Amino acid sequence: MTRPLKQIHLAAHFPGVNNTTVWSDPASGSHIDFASFVHFAQTAERGKFDFMFLAEGLRLREQNGQIYDLDVVGRPDTFTVLAALAAVTDRLGLTGTINSTFNEPYEVARQFASLDHLSEGRAAWNVVTSWDAFTGENFRRGGFLAESERYTRAESFLAAAHTLFDSWQEHAIVADKDGGRFLADPRAGEFTYTDQHFDISGRFNVPRSPQGRPVIFQAGDSDRGRDFAAAAADAIFSRHSTLEAGRQFYADVKDRLPAFGRHRDDLLILPAATFVLGDTDAEAAEIAHEVRLAQVSPQTAIKFLEQLWNRDLSDHDPDGPLPSVDPVVGENTIARGRASVRMYRDPVATANEWRARAEAENLTTRELIIEVTGRQNFIGSASTVAEQINDLVQADASDGFILVPHVTPAGLDPFVDTVVPLLQERGVFRADYTGSTLREHLGLAENGSR
């Protein structure tokens, strides 16, 4: 029996603290001006996307003791931006990254419940953790939480927030005959939550929101992070987006769900992906090459190199071979506030892998960095890109993609104008919204179960 075609989920990521944006492109605009956020969000909504996504950095990154200014430096507060966007969009989901290490459950739950009311049910929360004392200094908590405890606190934080969201669940506000309003049950909003991280009790002051709870996203890739997602998340923001890696990640996480009393369809896998479009595949490939050169300038290549080597390499030639010296093992003191350095669990082994690849493919330092820092790219004509996306989703390498354009804010426009209609013609992407809340867009029940 042939399986019905899966419906593709699409979302858009307003580029955050990264080197995605090609600043030299004449179309590149501000990452702070509200008009940029409006253009981006309204384009995603015109394309009938599920949601737009905002990442967030809690401290300006540094490298070699200086502010890292080769890409996005800083950006306005996530809640403020999303609340403003709720007023200029009607159906688009609004997803924000909010930290569970340096915040408190009551405050975050109140903000998300408020956003869900303001947007009429379109709020989502990407739950993240922080491990570094450098970021913690902004909160006077530098080094207070060991890395091994970050998911324990995140689990407690989310459970406490759910207690707050649900504190109005069985209670209603009703109107009397004189037009007044009163609580049908005076216990509405009462809550108590106690564990090793939180001991809170009181009364939650935001009535139950349209979705009940915001949609929960998770982006961790460790074994503990995957378990956290399988237990509590509605969707995963994944970095595994090629066919083989995507299918392995997809199967691994889906197989974890039964242990937490959940079904395979209770969790969506949504990798991030960039794209480059052209009139032909050959033209798109040429544009993609120029984009990568712009994203990884000689200066950027050296900065990426320093993040692995953990030493000052400012005198290194980006057009020469990789350094002959090995990385400095231990705490990374060169790059601060950048989570990606934690991916290098064995820096020396990674450096040797890079050397072997550079030698085998005759790559300079910059060319090698371009290769190893590349994200999943959809490159080709609109027809080719539509086929690539559909093939990966139907092969269970993902349930859809979170697209990250290299030009802000107008970089999403060509995809919406050319690729989306082709997916709609294939019958794998909605022609229009059929629901009003983000949970409805994603096929999720009110409290997170299908």
TrEMBL record:
Residues 25-395 form the Luciferase-like domain. Keywords: Flavoprotein, FMN, Monooxygenase, Oxidoreductase. One of its GO terms (molecular function) is oxidoreductase activity, acting on paired donors, with incorporation or reduction of molecular oxygen. InterPro entries: Diverse_substr_monoxygenases, Luciferase-like_dom, Luciferase-like_sf, NTA_MOA. It holds the Pfam family Bac_luciferase. FMN binds at residues 97, 151, 222. Gene3D superfamilies: Luciferase-like domain. Belongs to the NtaA/SnaA/DszA monooxygenase family. This is Nitrilotriacetate monooxygenase family FMN-dependent oxidoreductase [Frankia symbiont of Datisca glomerata]. It comes from Mycolicibacterium parafortuitum (Mycobacterium parafortuitum). The lineage of its organism: Bacteria, Bacillati, Actinomycetota, Actinomycetes, Mycobacteriales.
